[in-house]
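User:
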Amino acid sequence: MQIRSLSNCMVLALALGCSGTLRANECVPALPEPHSNNAVAITITDGQQTLFSFAGLRAGKTWRDTSRKAYMYKAGEATWTALPDIPVLEGRLAATAEAVAGKIYYFGGYTVAEDGTEVSAPENFVFDPATRAYSRIADMPTPTDDAVSFVYQDRYIYLVSGWHNTGNIRDVQVYDTQENTWFLATEYPGSPVFGHAGGIVGNRFVIADGVAVVGQDDAGRRKFDTVNEGWMGTISPDDPTQITYRRLPQLPGRGHYRMGGEADVDGNRVLFVGGTPNAYNYNGIGYNGEPSIPQKHVFAWDFTKDNWVAYKDKPIASMDHRGLIKWGGDWITVGGLTDGQMVTGDILAWKAGNITCD
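Assistant: Predicted structure:
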């Protein structure tokens, strides 16, 4: 996705690091163990910003390396704290996590068996940082992985599209954190995808790109490829089940997969970083047999401009993200895959690049 051809390509001033815009006690160390495809979230715990990482893929990148690990990092501390593992028997990839009212809600993901069989997981949990305990919550109507999630009205968690066992779905599944129930909202009108990215500002959300099934090869096997699509959804303020969609202008170049994405409420935009134009499963090798190459791009849908805006590339290319985090006023990714499809535990940000605390 060569979006630098858009006008007003600007420097995104998001310096970060021990000598950057954050105070020294806000520098974030690397995860205790490298993880990619990990679900991430942030909330306030004991008055401090607190990061969470759940599950994902360890450095070996085989079915054995799917993880149940969970970690917490509180601003000002020297290291991450290991939390109890997610209470499931097998590791999880491509889950999603969101914070509401100081608790972290963890959804879906998929398991990988030795023979390569993948199953979308039905279990969902709420994690309480105060007690460091998980409680199982209602199952999704359709177990889904690699979906986009976001929070609306500090109550509802929306999961848009994604993969269910053998194919993509258009479902928009909504979890009510107050009632522990699910309902369906107006389905996603774009190509059903997995590994897309997005976020919400107010009652408007933006979804970009992802991977779709695009036909069959000569042997009758499904073919996967990235799609170049952007959609805005506007949730009715009177009825959270009702969404009106608008297709956004198409960006030049190819679509991207497993970018980091999140809403920037203060900037009135949804940010997207990294990803790759070459669809892959989980080990960084494309369905076409070619290694997937992570990208450095940073762009956004700007609601004020009503258009896409391109920013200066970040210095370190990365992909395989399940979210983007605002930390101390800046933006970071936690873990992921870097050049050479290497699993990292580093905290990556703009301008300072690879941020660790010595």
